[in-house]
User: Which sequence fits this backbone?
């Protein structure tokens, strides 16, 4: 009930030494500064190498990228894949969380492991496994084969968010609702859904972001198709129009930052750990 | 449900357990329990944690189903009847207020489910809040209330459907002592006003004794004794009840035989024992025994003496601190006496 | 008299009395998906690794054999495995060194807005674009890029040249040397190390530290004897991620580094250009086996309690 009791309120924190402070800030800057170079190089006039500092600045690459049909094709494929994967992950992740929260059963530990496995094993294992299954089953590549892979590792993201929220809400809430006359469906609608919705939505947002920029598994499940990350990867090998890749990258950053920030704000008040581990 | 005709006869049965068991694997949470709770009664289920009292409450509410036997509410077997089809409401231990709703919506929840129009349910909810002295708090969120206030909201919410039976699961457990005593008085008053059956689970014997018409003492999945508070305190049926309800001197084996002259355990309340100088005369109907004071604890209203008996064993004596009374020192020899009727012979 | 016996009420009551049916209905969809698609694929990977490829036709021969595994133990392949494991170890150690002070600062000293800022600053890179972030280091490490430029501007160009000419490092620029590969790995996986350590440190109750100093321990001693041991499960949990992710990655070494291949690239090339899925499958078993060993050790260190 008293879920806020654990949050630090006026815990008198000591003062950190300057060495520790410097090391902490170094870590944070190391994590975030490199992104700025992506933005900077999106405006460079040098289109064949990575000269620093850029010889000149221009906005022409935005127009060039805008007019590239291959960019848009890859973009829409990624949106489509991420959206469908998100939907599947939301349904399956929520079901799994509800079952794991509500019931005790034989083999529960194994089910947890199974849900975690796709992110615990290196992405390349998931990728090559799916690739080998497609080869054995002679399944042709399509956007659905990409979705199969993405949804698999997205389930855990929704699951983590949903179960964290469930664990922090009192199990008596469901009983209270039924006690007051609400049947299972009414309880779901009036109590479970309002409490869980933001957590599921946050999980879905993260799943979308995760799917949108996934490349390791995707290269194995895409065949000749190009999602945006694969398209970018291909562009990197080309010596001409390099800043186009940067413009695409800026674009991708914006598209994934929005859902991530949304997820953060959706779960901020409730201290959900927004998915420990990708 | 037909609670109208059931309530008409004052002493009809509200809830009865017929040989009810609830087992979790090899754990027998409730084991072959039978009892009746009368309409309009304030009934307490008392016991330590894990004694089966909460499970019994949950069996009545419908959150649990019996492994065998049947729970009957107003003459109807409740097997397979879900909580939402039972004319019973619950005040939960942690209150279980819906965090996403304000106080009014919490209280009006039962009416909302029954599709009572919004204006009407708001009016009834406000009325109920007035009754628990929370008028004007309707727009707050549960997180903005104190523990005592949440407790009242939970009560109002459970009463709004006018159930025939109200279940209370350690409702005062999370409150501090002062508030708890105040709420005990209020709960009792509310029960008189609404006139419905209260079934009250607690591990606090003081609470059970002060509020209830009858108390069932639970231990290890069965009922040790079911009686009115006075009876329970003065005549505990078993050693467990004697020890759990109030403080008691339990004497067993040789020590018990030396005092009562019979086999089997016996017990005596500390406040029933008188202290006297060795060799004093005692009344004709009294029993006496000699001993030596080992420890003295001054407790304000009274003083506690631990006395080692010559016949073996040790008893605690509570003496009220009136203006003058015999005050032995530690190590001093004393004579203990009590009226014979206060010695309780125990089963089990 | 009769409780509202609407369809939803009757269905609800039906389900209420059959909790096992509800459990099945909830658990079946995710289990089917993960069981069939994921476990099925892993199994097919295992099966594939026992097939082999016909040298003349280039077609997969569906006979069980240990051919692929035999080829796995060639000198070239062992060198690839050794190189990858060394890189994963180095990356894990350095991630730990950079992550610890950061996590320690967030857990123990930052509060309120600073804490939120630091938290977002660690979370955002974790969830944002992998490829874009790798690419940013290609820009920074390039011969004509920012770091080389900075060294030259400071007159330290020769120092960098000297470092790059060292035996193992060997590269014409940072972006074609092991240093570049390692830097990028560290950058990409760092959040995975920070978060578990932070979580482990957050769980150390303040009273424990006060008890320690109360018992006469100087701050340094409290750190060594109390804080650090309690953070070890967090470090172990973080290292699972950094180690596992480095083992399986093939994008980073392909974009940044010398052309000497890592396990991930080997798997990628066998299944792609060579079309030799059996060999790729056998190679993919290597990180699985290494991780199984690693997880056993991490479990002993209590890493699973800190996940």
Assistant:
């Amino acid at each position: 009930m008293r879920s806020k009791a654990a949050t630090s309120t006026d815990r008198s924190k000591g003062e950190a030494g300057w060495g520790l402070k410097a090391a902490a800030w170094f870590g944070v800057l190391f994590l975030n500064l490199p992104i700025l170079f992506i933005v900077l190089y999106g405006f460079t006039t040098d289109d064949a190498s990575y000269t620093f500092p850029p010889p000149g600045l221009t906005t022409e690459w935005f127009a060039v990228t805008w007019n590239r049909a291959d960019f848009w094709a890859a973009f829409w494929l990624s949106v489509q894949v991420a959206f469908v994967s998100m939907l599947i992950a939301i349904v399956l992740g929520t079901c799994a969380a509800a079952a794991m929260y509500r019931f005790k059963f034989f083999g529960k530990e194994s089910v947890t492991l199974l849900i975690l496995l796709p992110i615990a094993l290196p992405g390349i294992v998931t990728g090559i496994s799916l690739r080998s299954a497609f080869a054995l089953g002679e399944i042709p590549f399509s956007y659905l084969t990409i979705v199969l892979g993405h949804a698999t590792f997205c389930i855990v993201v929704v699951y983590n968010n949903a179960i964290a929220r469930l664990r922090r809400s009192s199990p008596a809430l469901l009983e209270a609702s039924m006690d007051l006359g609400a049947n299972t469906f009414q309880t779901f609608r009036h109590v479970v859904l309002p409490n869980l919705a933001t957590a599921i939505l946050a999980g879905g947002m993260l799943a979308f972001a995760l799917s949108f920029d996934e490349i390791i598994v995707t290269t194995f499940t895409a065949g000749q198709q190009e999602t945006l990350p694969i398209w970018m990867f291909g562009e990197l090998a080309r010596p001409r129009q390099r800043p186009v890749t940067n413009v695409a990258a800026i674009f991708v950053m914006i598209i994934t930052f929005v859902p991530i920030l949304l997820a953060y704000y959706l779960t901020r008040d409730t201290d959900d750990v927004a998915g420990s581990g990708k | 449900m037909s609670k109208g005709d059931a309530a008409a006869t004052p002493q009809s049965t509200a809830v009865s357990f017929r040989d009810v068991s609830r087992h979790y694997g090899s754990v027998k949470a409730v084991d072959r329990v039978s009892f009746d709770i009368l309409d309009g009664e304030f009934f307490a289920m008392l016991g330590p944690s894990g004694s089966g009292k909460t499970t019994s409450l949950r069996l009545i509410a419908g959150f649990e189903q019996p492994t065998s036997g049947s729970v009957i509410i107003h003459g109807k077997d409740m097997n397979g009847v879900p909580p939402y089809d039972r004319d019973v409401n619950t005040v939960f231990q942690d209150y279980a207020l819906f965090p996403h709703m304000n106080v009014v919506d919490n209280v009006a929840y039962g009416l909302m489910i029954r599709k009572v129009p919004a204006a009407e349910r708001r009016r009834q909810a406000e009325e109920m809040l007035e009754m628990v002295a929370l008028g004007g708090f309707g727009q707050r969120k549960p997180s903005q209330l104190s523990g005592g206030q949440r407790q009242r909201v939970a009560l109002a919410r459970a009463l709004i459907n006018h159930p025939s039976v109200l279940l209370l699961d350690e409702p005062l457990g999370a409150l501090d002592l002062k508030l708890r005593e105040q709420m005990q008085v209020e709960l009792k008053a509310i029960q008189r006003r609404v006139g419905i059956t209260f079934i009250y689970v607690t591990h606090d014997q003081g609470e059970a004794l002060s509020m209830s018409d009858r108390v069932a003492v639970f231990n290890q999945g069965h009922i040790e004794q079911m009686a009115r508070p006075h009876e329970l305190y003065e005549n505990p049926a078993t050693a467990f009840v004697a020890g759990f309800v109030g403080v008691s001197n339990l004497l067993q084996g040789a020590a018990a035989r030396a005092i009562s002259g019979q086999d089997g355990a016996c017990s005596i309340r500390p406040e029933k024992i008188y202290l006297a100088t060795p060799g004093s005369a005692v009344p004709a109907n009294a029993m006496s025994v000699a001993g030596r004071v080992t420890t003295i604890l001054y407790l304000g209203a009274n003083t506690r003496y631990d006395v080692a008996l010559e016949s073996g064993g040790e008893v605690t004596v509570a003496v009220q601190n009136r203006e003058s009374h015999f005050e032995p020192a530690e190590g001093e020899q004393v004579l203990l006496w009590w009226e014979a009727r206060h010695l309780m012979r125990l089963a089990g | 008299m009769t409780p509202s016996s609407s369809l939803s009420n009757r269905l609800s009551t039906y389900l209420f009395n059959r909790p096992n049916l509800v459990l099945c209905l909830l658990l079946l969809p995710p289990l089917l998906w993960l069981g069939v698609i994921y476990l099925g694929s892993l199994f097919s990977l295992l099966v594939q690794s026992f097939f082999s490829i016909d040298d003349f036709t280039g077609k997969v021969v569906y006979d069980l054999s240990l051919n692929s595994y035999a080829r796995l133990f060639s000198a070239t392949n062992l060198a690839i495995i050794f190189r990858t494991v060394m890189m994963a170890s180095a990356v894990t150690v350095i991630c730990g060194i950079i992550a610890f002070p950061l996590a320690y600062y967030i857990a123990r000293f930052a509060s309120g807005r600073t804490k939120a800022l630091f938290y977002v600053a660690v979370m955002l890179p974790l969830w944002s674009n992998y490829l874009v972030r790798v690419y940013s280091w290609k820009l920074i490490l390039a011969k004509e890029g920012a770091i080389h430029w900075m060294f030259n501007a400071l007159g330290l160009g020769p120092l960098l040249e000297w470092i790059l000419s060292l035996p193992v490092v060997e590269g014409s620029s940072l972006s074609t040397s092991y240093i570049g590969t390692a830097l990028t790995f560290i950058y990409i996986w760092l959040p995975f190390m920070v978060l578990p350590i932070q979580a482990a440190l957050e769980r150390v109750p303040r009273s424990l530290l006060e008890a320690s100093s109360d018992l006469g321990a100087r701050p340094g001693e409290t750190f060594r004897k109390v804080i650090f041991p309690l953070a070890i499960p967090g470090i172990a949990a973080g290292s699972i991620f950094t180690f596992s992710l480095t083992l399986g990655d093939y994008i980073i070494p392909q974009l940044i580094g010398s052309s000497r291949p890592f396990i991930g690239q080997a798997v990628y090339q066998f299944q792609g250009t060579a079309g030799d899925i059996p060999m790729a499958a056998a190679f993919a078993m290597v990180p699985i086996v290494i991780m199984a060993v690693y997880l056993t050790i991490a479990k002993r260190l209590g890493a699973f309690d800190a996940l």
About this structure: The radius of gyration of chain B is 24 Å. Residues 1-9 of chain B have pLDDT under 50 and may be disordered. Residues 262 and 336 of chain B are 19 Å apart (CA to CA). Chain B touches chain A at residues 61-63, 82-84, 88-90, 92-100, 109-110, 112-114, 143, 157-158, 161 (CB under 8 Å).
